[in-house]
Specification:
single chain; about 400 residues; alpha/beta; Rossmann fold; 5-stranded mixed beta sheet; 13 helices; 14 strands
């Protein structure tokens, strides 16, 4: 039995601990940098008897996601992890898991897609999969990664949702960084996340079809059901975040969006993931230099925790009173700017607000304080966004 304790631990290690506490029965795994330590640690937990689970050592990431599909078809809670080209290799099966409404959970250590070959961080891997029917939750730090993995199962397994979840953490910045993290008591986790009781699985006493062929007269209806479930997840994500906060004393905004210093802000930066920590430090610097908070020096941060479902209504509320937003994009939708920026523009269409894209951090290039200040000053001067090289 795991007792509650605080550990200085890497992001990969803490995610493995979180998975262990969720008690999955099947773990199909194929290692890829920078997610490799997650399956390594889970292997140790299984081999030393800390976790009762079956590890499937597969020959590729495509096989890992296929085995994950098969595990859920038999009605057991499962888990896998990947990154970058590994996630890309899973692409064929990613929408099949979602279309089958299996409540799978997968951790993705965000890493740049090739080419050229690059093992460092950006968010091109998961953002490239944003339209395949998975909920996507992005974490700022290792404590949030631990908490979000546990919440992810409760969200995915909700009968009104039944939608798989990607828990996205910035590769190396979080996976290999050591931070103090509160590891909760196993008994408390069990109370928060009960044993998985599947609604739909292979059962000879109640035959069902999985992976059926859909004609034009039915395929669109399946997609509509997925869209309705994704929209329902907006409410469920918020409820689970609130429940987790009440039990463990930690929550993340409303579970969809987290705001920082936005109450009187005239301009704000918007981002996904760990770069929000640096942005907060720069905002604090501006506050220290301008304690009265006058005029254009009122700067806030809007961090999207959920990218899918996209929290449109919550974002509209967050930007009330804000005149300009700078979106930090860590994925280039080549030929049409930043994917995150374009989604923000679509969500805020008709709102009287300036929206600028700042492409940054591609392939692991550091987004330091100087780059954040550059983005802020650019918006203050009313100029267009740019690549922060």
């Amino acid at each position: 039995m795991i007792m509650a304790e605080k550990k200085v631990i890497s992001g990969s290690d803490v995610m493995a601990h979180a998975v262990k506490m969720c008690r999955p029965k099947v773990l199909p795994m194929y290692p890829i940098t920078p997610s490799t330590l997650i399956p390594e640690r889970l292997s140790e937990f299984v081999n030393n008897g800390e976790l009762e689970s079956k590890i499937i050592y597969v020959e590729s990431e495509h096989s890992a996601i296929s085995a994950l599909y098969g595990a859920y078809a038999t009605g057991v809670r499962s888990f896998t992890a990947t990154a970058s080209q590994g996630l890309a290799l899973m692409h064929e099966i990613i929408p099949i898991v979602a279309g089958s409404r299996f409540p799978a959970v997968m951790a993705v250590a965000n890493r740049a897609l090739s080419g050229p070959l690059n093992i460092w961080n950006d968010q091109s891997d998961t953002i490239s999969e944003r339209d395949q029917g998975w909920i996507q939750l992005y974490c700022e730090n290792n404590q949030e990664a631990f908490d979000t993995l546990i919440m992810a199962y409760k969200i995915a397994e909700n009968s009104k949702v039944l939608t798989p979840v990607m828990v996205c953490v910035d590769g190396f910045y979080l996976t290999h960084a050591y931070e103090p993290v509160q590891i909760e008591d196993q008994k408390d986790i069990d109370e928060f996340l009960p044993e998985y009781k599947p609604l739909h699985f292979l059962d000879t006493s109640s035959p069902k079809t999985f992976g059926a062929f859909a004609q034009p007269n039915s395929y669109m209806d399946f997609k509509l059901e997925q869209e309705l479930a994704m929209q329902e997840s907006i409410k469920v994500i918020s409820e689970v975040n609130s429940e987790f906060g009440k039990k463990f004393g930690r929550s993340y905004g409303d579970g969809l969006i987290e705001e920082y210093n936005t109450k009187k802000a005239k301009l704000a930066l918007l981002c996904l993931g760990s770069v929000s920590g640096t942005i907060k430090e720069v905002i604090d610097e501006y506050k220290a230099k301008h304690p009265s908070g006058a005029g254009a020096k009122e700067i806030g941060l809007i961090r999207l925790k959920a990218y899918r479902p996209f929290p449109t209504e919550q974002l509209k509320k967050a930007v009330k009173g804000i005149k300009a937003i700078g979106v930090i994009d860590k994925h280039a939708s080549i030929g049409f700017g930043g994917a995150l920026t374009n989604d923000v523009k679509a969500a805020l269409f008709g709102e009287k607000i300036q929206i600028e894209s700042f492409m940054a951090g591609l392939g692991g290039r550091d987004i330091d304080r100087a780059k954040i200040r550059d983005a802020i000053e650019t918006i203050m001067k009313g100029k267009e966004g740019k690549w922060l090289k």
